[in-house]
Prior knowledge:
Layout: H1 19-26, H2 29-50, H3 55-82, H4 87-92, H5 96-112, H6 120-142, H7 144-148, H8 152-184, H9 190-213, H10 231-247, H11 249-279, H12 284-312, H13 314-335, H14 344-381, H15 386-414, H16 426-453, H17 458-472, H18 482-492, H19 502-511
Helix pairs in contact: 1-8, 1-9, 2-8, 2-9, 2-11, 3-6, 3-15, 5-6, 5-9, 6-15, 8-9, 8-12, 8-14, 11-12, 11-14, 11-15, 11-16, 12-13, 12-14, 13-14, 13-16, 14-15, 14-17, 15-16
Amino acid sequence: MTDIANGATPVYVEKRISFMNIVGYACVNFLGGGSTTLISAWLMYFYTTMCGIDAVSAGLIFASARIFDALLNPVMGFITDNFYKTRIGRRFGRRRFFILMGIPSIMVIFPAMWLPNMGLAYYWFINLLYEMCFTMVIVSCVTLPAEMTKNAADKAKMTGGKQMCGIISSTIAAAIPGLMFKIYGQEDPTAFVMTGVVYGIMMAISLVVVWKFTYERKPEEVHVFSNTDTIFSGLISIISNVKQALKLRAYRLHCTMLAMGCIYKNIATGVFTYFVVSVIFLEKSEASWVLSITQMTSFAALCLCIWMCYRFGSPRTYRIFTVVVAIGCAGYYGLTLMIGSPSLVFALTAVAIVGMAGRAGIDYIPVFQLPFMADIDEIVHGERREGIFTGVNTLFSRAATGIESLVLGLGLAYFGYTKGTDVQTPETQQGIMLIVVVSPIVLLAIGWWASTKLSLTKENHKTLCQEVARLRAGGKKEDVDPEVRAIVEDLTGYSYEKCWTIKHNVDQEQKA
Length: 512
């Protein structure tokens, strides 16, 4: 076996991606999608109505845990990238070992988040544990498309399958509270406890499927540099890698779209229950069923988004779905004019379907783009660092969810939300409506701007990959086609002359 720590040239063998491989990878979204929907829609509401936690404190629980955890994401990406240096990594896999660890962890930690009346410190600590477990698994899993194939179509199938599974898991997760309300009653905390138990078991089973039907590159196929043998050198390498990732023009724009979309979708989900119960005066169970139905109907929007990303490119598709979101926001305002109408639930469902369709597209597009970032980075630095990009990506998404929680908590407090009750003042109701209608438009306007600057299309990506292959085969940089040069420079933000030499320059500087 080739020693991967000595800089030997890796030998990559392409494998065929089967249907079960796609299913295996997709099942990670029972953790990544379903749990996020459940937590965003109900956990803060549970803390503020049944656990005696005020809105600001509840927001701080999520924000501090998620932002602290977000800082660990690049560390996790670095660890998985280099885990083949260890005996355990070579035995169980540098990615899949952490998936295996997540199976029992998530089955215990997730239900513990839903125990009533445990106190502020407990809720902060258990949320921190959950976020760390979440990151351990998600960072390891999101690298798998790039590990399992270099084929753009296969990567798209895997990410598309993951998003579809996210819709299935979110539909199931959203329905579970409604079922528990029916069994235990809407004012009994046991309904929330059992929600955590049931979905925790489902997530553990889904991770078993992920572990069983995914694979990664063998140790001899991976090039891992050996200049990070100590904790200090590892931390320096992490900082350097994150800095280098953010120097890529395409990745900076991608992260802007990702962050704005993440903050928007989590605010939209988090405020939904408050809006339904305290503004338009429907039951908790109705909020659960409507949310479940809308999650299910977003399948069509996701399929349309996948096709549009191929047909028009992800940046243009992002802008189209931003318009859909704006239409949904206008619909939520219209619902406040129908309070008391017998058709209010049906109108809410229709508006929520439009909003969820827009959200499905906004949610999918950064996932579609991520596997291509390592390809863009490769032409600059001459190596593949999927884990670093995944770690930084998860850092931004988890930080965004933390910001969302803090913004929602502060917003509810500013507008006078009273803990422990569903009955709120007219001023609070108007404030909740503003959060529902205005905040998505402001956030996605920023994402719209970033999308106009990003020229990541299927054709441009193919051209870039062909140029990497040409250079790896010994092609001369001075022979580059002018059109190819322009595409590389636009995506990377580097002049072509500085590409394909950066890694060697960095190595020389570190040795010096």
